[in-house]
Amino acid sequence: MPQGQLRVYLGAAPGVGKTFKMLEEGHHRADRGTDVVIGYVETHDRPRTEAMVTGLEVLPRRNLTYRGASFTELDVDAVLERRPDVVLVDEMAHTNVPGSRNAKRWQDIEELLDAGLVVLTTVNIQHLESINDVVQEITGVPQRETVPDAVVRRAEQIELVDMTPEALRRRMAHGNIYKPERVDAALGNYFRVGNLTALRELALLWLADKVDEQLDRYREEHRISESWETRERVVVALTGGPEGDTLIRRAARVADRSKGADLEAVHVARSDGLAGGESPAHLARQRTLVENLGGSYHQVVGNDVPKALLDFARAVNASQLVLGASRRNRLAQVFSPGVGVTTTAGAGPIDVHLVTHERAGRGRGAPTLGGSALSLPRRLVGFGLVAVGLPVLTYLLTLTREGLSLPSDILLYLAWVVVAALVGGLYPALCSAVAGFLLLNYYFAPPIHLWTINQWQNILALFVFLAVAVAVSVTVDQSARRTREAAAARAEAVTLSTLAGSVLRGSRPLPALLGQLREALGFTGVTLLERRPDAPSSPDLRRDKDSWRIAGAVGDAPCLTPFEGDADIPVDEDITLVLRGHPLAAADRRVVQAFAAQAAVALRQERLSEQAAAAGTLAEADKLRTALLSAVSHDLRTPLASAKAAVTSLRSHEVVFDEHDQDELLATADESLDRLVRLVDNLLDMSRLQAGVLGTSVQAMSVAEAVAKAVEDLGPAGHDIGIHVPDELAEINADPALLERILANLLSNALRYSPQGRPPLVTASEHGGYVEIRVVDHGPGIPVADRDRVFLPFQRLGDRTNDTGVGLGLALSRGLAEAMGGDLFPETTPGGGITMTVRLPVAVPSPADNTADPAALARIEHWRHGTEETA
C-alpha cells in the first residue's frame, strides 16, 4: 500500500490561524470533489473557526474516562473504517489520554499515513523537539508536548502560518483568541512583543533550513554537483600569508556589490595536521577581519588544495570564488600551473576572481636542507658509524673477496647507509653513500685499486647504489622530521585548545591569554608592550624605556623594553610580546605567534570597550548638564516667580488685601514652594543615582500593599483607578518607599493622559522569577521611536506646560527600579495607549504565605469589584 501524504500547517505562535487555514484547505479540496472528513478539530470556542467546520463531515470521537473525568480523542479506527481521501487532524503535538490507541497524536497520524491516507494537521513552532528548550528559555513557559523534528520534516508540504506580533496582540485584545478574563494575563506573559518576535524568527529559520534541506536532497537525487545561484555566496581562499587582508577586503566588496551576498572565508589545512607556510598570527587577524566584515571563517582539511576549495565552494553553493595570485616565481610555475589555474579550470559555473597583491610572483623561498630533525648527539653517532663502520666493513669484505660478488658488496654497503640514516639522519647517510660509492669503486669494481671501471654493468650498479642510498637517506630524514613535526603539531593543538577555553571562561581575555602562555611554555614572566604614540623614532628602539608602555603582564617583574626579555615576538609596529625565563625554542615560535596575535586582538577590544564606555559617560554627562541648565533657567524659575510674587504682594503697603485674598496668596506661595521642594528632591535623587550613592533598603514586601499606598497618595483622583492584583501573588524584593514613589509617579502620568471614562488600570503577574506591575492607560501613547527618550532626564515629549515639572519623573522612576535590581519599560496597550511595566525580583518562591496588610488587601478588593462593575 503506498504511503499517504502529510501536509503540516506550522504556526509561529498560538492564535495565528493554523486550524482556520487547515479547514479552509479542506473546503477547497471538498469543492473539487475530494472526499474530506474531520478526524479531530479543536475550535477553542472561536466563532470563525466553528463556522469553518460547517459543511465538512465530522467523524465521531472516541470517549475515554481517566481518573473520573471524561475525555474525547481522535478515533483512529473510525477513520480507517471510513477511509476518506483526506482527513483533518488538529494539534499534532497533543498527548493522548492514557488508554488511547497511541501515546501521542503524531503517532496516530503516522498510522493513518501508513494506511495510505492524506493527512492535514497543525503544530506550533514551540512544540518541535529540537527548539523546545530554546522556546522555554525565551518565554519562561515549559512545553511538555513535543513532536520529533524528523516527523514534521517528512511532510510533503509545510506551510508557515504567520502574523506580526502587533496584529496577533490586537486579535488577542479583541477577544478573538482567548476569553476576556484571560487576555490581560496572556498579553503580559506569553504574548509579549519580544516573545512573539523571537518565536516568529525561530519559525522562519526552521522553515528555511527545511527549504535548504529539500534543495540539497533534490540536487543529490538528480546528481547535480554544480552550484545553483539561488543566493549569492562569495568564498575567499586564505593561505595564511600576509596577502590575506587584501583578499578579504576585495571579497567583501564583491559581496556588497552582489546585493549583500554571504561572505565565507576558508583555509585549507593539511590532512596530516603538519604546518604548511601559513602564519597563525596572520590567520588569527584575518579571521577577526572576516567576522568584523560580517562573514564567517572556516577551516577544511585536504592535501589537494584546489579540490578542497572547490568541494567547499560547491558544498556552500557558492557563486563566486576569490583567490590570490600565486606567490611562486615563474620558474616554479613552469613545472606546476598552481592553485589558481587548477581551481579556475575545474570551477565550472563558479566565477573565479584572481586578485593580484604585493607578494605575487616573489616566490615562497627555497626549502633548505639544514636543520636536521634529529638531535646533535644522534648526528654525531651517525658520523661515527660512517667513520668507523665503513672501514671495518671494507676490511671484512676484502677478506671474502673471492666468495662475494659486486652486487652482494653493494647490498651490504646499502644496508650500512640505511643504518647511518636511521641513527644519524640525512648528513651521515649522505656521507655514507658517497664514501661507500668510492670504496666500492676502489676495492671491489675491476680493475681493483684504481678509480676506473672497465665494465658498464658495474658503472650502472654503482650509480644505482648511489642514487638509492641518497633516496633512502632523504626519506629516512623526512620521516624523522615529520614525526617530530606531528608531535609538535599535537602539542600546539592541545595548547591552543586550552588557550581558547581559558579565554572563553575569563571575563578579561588579555590576562587569561598571557597567563596561559606563561603556564604552557614555562616562562617566568610574559609582558605585552605597546609603543607610546608620542615615542620618537630611535635607532635603538628596543632598549628605549621611554618608547614603550606595559599593556599587560603576568609573572615576575614585567619587562620595560623588548630587549629585557629572553625572547620577543613583534605583532606589528606598535605591539610586541616579550618573554622571560628561557630562550624561545624554534619549534614553539608558531604557538607563541598565535598567542601574540590573540593578545593584540584582546588588547584592542579592551581599549575599544574602555573608549566606548568613556565616550558614553561623557555624552550622558554633557546631555544632563545641558538639560539641567535649561531646566533651571526655565522650569525652576516658574515656582520661584509665583512664590516671589505672592510674598511681594503680601508685603506691599500700596494695596490692602482682605482676608480671602491673603489666604489665596499664601496658598499660592505654599504650593509653589512645595513644587520647588519636589523638583529639588528629584534633582538630588537623580544626581545620587548617577553617582551611584543612592541608599536603598530592599526587603520582602507585598505588591498589593505597595499599590494600595501609591493609590492613596493620589487622593480623590486615585479612586477611579482599576486594580487587578492577585491575592496569591509572590512577594517581591523592593524598597517600600521607592516602589511607592515609582508607582505614584506612573499613576499620576496615567491619570493625566487617560481619556474621560477610561481610567488607568493596575495589574500584576509573576513570570520567570520576576513580578511585573503594569500601569495601563488608554491615552495617546508614545511613538515607538520616542520610547527611549522618555526615560532621559528633562524630556517631556510635547508636554510644554509649566505645571508638569522638569521631565525627571520617568527617568527617576527607571533609575529607582534599577537600583532595586529591577527594570521599568514601556509597551503598547492593545487598542491604544501605553503600558508602563515595573519588573522586580521575586522574594519568596512560594506565594502561600503572603503577609500583606489586611486593610490594604481589603482596599484592593473593594477597588477590584468596583472596576469590574464599571466594566
UniProtKB/TrEMBL annotation:
EC number: 2.7.13.3
Localization (cell): Cell membrane; Membrane
Catalytic activity: ATP + protein L-histidine = ADP + protein N-phospho-L-histidine
Protein origin, superkingdom: Bacteria
Domain Histidine kinase: 631-844
Main location: membrane
InterPro entries given in the database record: HATPase_C_sf, HATPase_dom, His_kinase_dom, HisK_dim/P_dom, HisK_dim/P_sf, Histidine_kinase_KdpD, KdpD_sf, KdpD_TM
Keywords: ATP-binding, Kinase, Membrane, Nucleotide-binding, Phosphoprotein, Transferase, Transmembrane, Transmembrane helix, Two-component regulatory system
TM stretches of this protein: 380-399, 411-444, 456-476
UniProt-listed SMART domains: HATPase_c, HisKA
Keyword ATP-binding among UniProt keywords: yes
Alphabetized Gene3D superfamilies for the sequence: 1.10.287.130, Backbone structure of the membrane domain of e. Coli histidine kinase receptor kdpd, Histidine kinase-like ATPase, C-terminal domain, HUPs, P-loop containing nucleotide triphosphate hydrolases
Pfam families: DUF4118, HATPase_c, HisKA, KdpD, Usp
Membrane topology: Multi-pass membrane protein
GO MF assignments: kinase activity
The protein's name: histidine kinase
Organism: Rugosimonospora acidiphila
